[in-house]
Design goal:
386 residues, alpha/beta, TIM Barrel, binds ligand 9MR, single chain, eight-stranded parallel barrel
């Protein structure tokens, strides 16, 4: 039976008071969600799950996994209920934009870390890990970078990475050092044609990671990319090319610590092959890399129009994906790109064609947990111990 949205309509304060008494109750309730996917949940159990005192942070942590989200200072300052939800649910905080190059170094050599500082301090004061990024990303470049002479660009990039990572030395759990460098199918090249490639050269990834590692040897250094998740020719091509890139990087002893798979999932029945994805992740792991799901959310491409049906489709997409990905022991955690659909880049980037607000995240715009929350909780609970 499909739970109706009214059944999840439990205010935050009430949910906390009506907590499930034991962990066993909680897991029993979750297992009804896991069995055959979210669609098979009994509505009664669902209520119990939603009443749980447990948070995504705790459920993940019980398996040695990290759960976190990306957000901005503005939202945390302006919206205390949202702030409380982030603090309760997340063990890791990642800036959505604040540490992109164009914000950090708006003109050459003039560094401004105040937005990243604020988020790093916020995380520290609330006992959350802080993950920096994205440092080197063609879409995050300041306009002035593209007019540099090639002879200067390498040094400027190296300085940028060094200054940024040094500034937070010892305070960042991780850094997305390089983001979205891989070319798409049909480009006829391994790397995207960007000012970074053109001005710094084909070894810009290597240079960036060496600089980051020298600046903070203790941080987990992440290479991050997208469109790797589905069993479609584009993603298959990119998985193959990414493995090639990681093999080269590994042979050249470039200090990459982890692969970030963005995981912007889509409903609508895109082909998905768990065995192929698992094989890809295990090859990444065999090269010695950790893996993190770095930007999870779900955009809606399916025919569903009712909120309950849409939420079920979204939750099922998350379930089938995370249930495969979390089987790989090298996966250390999951970051969602936002926490509540009150604030999501998908509202602009991938709006629904019927104009209904999107629901891509574990909480809806009223800060109530959705079936996506349950799908994530169930996947964490099902994962083996790290
Ligand atoms: O969510 C981010 C949005 O607020 C920004 O406008 C956009 C451009 O900077 O970047 C979004 O985040 C991206 C992330 O940094 C890298 N992967 C893709 C994300 C969505 O574009």
């Amino acid at each position: 039976m499909v739970p109706k949205s009214s059944e999840v309509d439990v205010p935050v304060e009430l949910r906390e008071r009506r907590g499930v008494s034991t962990r066993r109750d909680f897991v029993a309730a979750l297992s009804t969600v896991v069995a055959g996917g979210v669609a098979s949940s009994a509505a009664g159990s669902l209520k119990v799950v939603l009443a749980a005192e447990q948070t995504l942070r705790d459920i993940a942590a019980q398996k040695g996994l990290i759960y976190g989200c990306a957000t901005t200072q503005d939202r945390l300052v302006a919206d205390p209920a949202f702030e409380r939800l982030v603090v309760d649910q997340c063990g890791l905080l990642v800036p959505e934009n604040a540490l992109n190059w164009n914000y950090v170094e708006p003109s050459p050599g003039r560094f401004d870390f105040h937005m990243g500082e604020w988020l790093a301090n916020f995380a520290k004061d609330r006992h959350m890990k802080f993950g920096g990024g994205t440092i080197v990303w063609h879409q995050g470049l300041p306009a002035w970078f593209s007019s540099l002479a090639p002879a200067d660009a390498r040094q400027v990039m190296l300085q940028h990475v060094t200054q940024t990572v040094s500034h937070f030395r010892g305070r960042a759990f991780s850094w997305v050092v390089v983001n979205e460098a891989l070319a798409f199918r049909g480009a006829g090249a391994e790397l995207k044609d960007t000012p970074l490639l053109r001005l710094v050269g084909p070894d810009y990834i290597d240079v960036a990671f060496h600089a980051a590692s020298a600046a903070d040897p203790g941080a987990l250094l992440i290479y991050n990319d997208n469109h790797l998740e589905y069993d479609i020719p584009e993603d298959e091509y990119r998985r193959k090319n990414l493995l090639k890139l990681l093999r080269r990087i590994s042979n050249a002893k470039v200090p990459v610590g982890a692969l970030g798979i963005q995981s912007h999932l889509r409903t609508g029945g895109l082909p998905f092959d768990g065995a192929k994805l698992k094989d890809f992740l295990s090859q990444v792991s065999d090269l010695g890399y950790k893996i993190i799901v770095s930007e999870l959310d779900v955009s809606e491409k399916g025919p569903e129009t009712e909120v309950a049906d849409r939420d079920r489709a979204i939750a099922n997409e998350i379930s089938r994906y995370l249930n495969v990905v979390l089987q790989e022991k090298a996966v250390i955690g999951v970051v969602t790109w936002g926490l509540s659909s009150r604030y999501t880049w998908l509202a602009n980037y991938a709006p629904r064609s019927d104009g209904q607000p999107v629901r891509p995240l574990p909480y809806d715009s009223d800060l109530r947990p959705t079936q996506a929350w349950q799908a994530m909780a169930a996947a964490f609970d099902r994962a083996s111990q790290r």
